[in-house]
Amino acid sequence: MNAEREQIRFDFVPMTEAHAQAICAWRYEPPYDRYNWEPWEELVRLGKELADPHIRAEQYRSAMIADELCGFAQWFPLAEDGRAGTIRLGLGLRPDLCGQGRGIGAAFAKAAASYALRLFPGWAVDLEVAADNRRAVAAYERAGFTIADTYELPTSRGPVLTYCMVWNES
Question: Is the pTM of this model over 0.85?
Answer without folding.
Answer: yes
